[in-house]
Amino acid sequence: MNCKEFQDYLSAFVDNQIDNEIKLQAQNHLSICPSCFFDYNVELLVKKVVSEKFKKAVCPDHLRNSIIEKLAYKRSIKDLIFDWLVNILERKSFKISFALGLILIMSFLVFNPFANTEEKYYKEFAAAVYENCKNIRNSRYPDKTIFTSNNETVAQFILSNGIKNPVMPKTDWQVAVASIEEQNNCVLAHFLFKCEVDTVYMMECEVDNLRYSNYSNLFYKIHDDLRKKSFVKVDHKDCSVIFRLENNVLTVYAMRSDNHHSFEELIASLE
User: How far, rounded to the nearest angstrom, does the alpha carbon of residue 79 sit from its chain's CA centroid?
Assistant: First the structure.
C-alpha cells in the first residue's frame, strides 16, 4: 500500500470499517511511513474530540491547526530524526546502494588497485641491501677493496673491474671505501661515503648483468616500476634505502633514517 491508497482508507481505517486484509496493509504502511502515521494520529484525535461532544461536526481550521501544532511539539527532534532514518533504511534503493557500497569498500581493502604491486619486492630488496650495508660498515669487505677519497681513482677501479658506466653520487660526499664483488658473471660495486658524522652506503650494478646475481628475481619484479620514477625510497629498520636507475646502472643507497640532511642532499642531486 502506498501513501495515496492509505489516505483513501484513512477515515475508514480509524473507524475500523475496513476488512482485515486492507487493515493489515494499512498497519504495515504506518510502520514505515512517518508522514501517514502523523496524519493517522491527527485523524484519530479529531474523531476523539468530535465523539466527546456527541455531535458530528467539521473540525474548525483553528482547532485542526492547534492540534497539529500540539502533536508536532510533542514529537521530539530525536523522534523525528529516528523516524527519518527508519524511513531511509527501509527503502529498497538504499539497501541496494548500501550493499554495493560495502562490496566496493571490501574490494578496495582486498584488491586495492592503487596499491604498489611491487612494494613487497622493494622491501625484500631493501632488506638484502641493509645486510650489505651492515657488513661493509663492520669492515667485512670483499677481496677487491681500495681505500681512497679520490673519485677518479675509484671510477677507474670500478671501470677496470667490469662496470662500463660507473655512477657516482653528485654530492660533496667523500669516498672512504670502494669494493668489488663478483657473483657468477655479475659485478657488484660497494661504496662507503663520509657524510658529516655518518656514512652512506651505495651499491651499483649494470642492469644487463643483474640476471647473474642473487638479486635477479627481486630486480626484475621492480624493474618496470622503477623505470618510471626518479627514485623509490623504502624504510627498513633504522635505514632509508633509495633505489634508482641511471645510465643502465642500478644504484641503491642506504643511510640512517634520521640523517635527513644526507637524504635531502642525495635527492636534490638525483633530480
Answer: 37
Give kind and range of the element (H or E) at residue 254.
Answer: strand 249-256
| 93-107, 140-154, 202-216: segment of lowest average pLDDT | 93-107
- Residue pair 212/184 in contact (Cβ under 8 Å)? The answer is yes
Measure the CA–CA gap between 26 and 24, rounded to whole angstroms.
5
Q: In what order do the strands lie in the sheet with 239-246?
A: 144-146, 174-183, 186-195, 198-206, 249-256, 239-246, 232-236
The pLDDT of residue 73 is 58
Phi-psi region of 184 (alpha: psi -120 to 50; beta: other; left: phi over 0): left
CB atoms within 10 A of CB 192: 22
34-52 and 77-90 helices, crossing angle to 10°: 130
The single residue listed with the C-alpha cell 650495508 is 133
Residue 114 has pLDDT above 70, yes or no: no
Asked if residues 250 and 207 have their Cβ atoms less than 8 Å apart, the reply is yes
pLDDT digits (tens, 9 = 90+) for 63-72: 777 776 666 5
Highest mean pLDDT among 10-14, 46-50, 59-63, 98-102: 10-14
Q: Is the dihedral of CA 200, 204, 210, 213 positive or negative?
A: negative
Q: State whether residue 117 is helix, strand or coil.
A: coil
pTM for the full model?
0.57
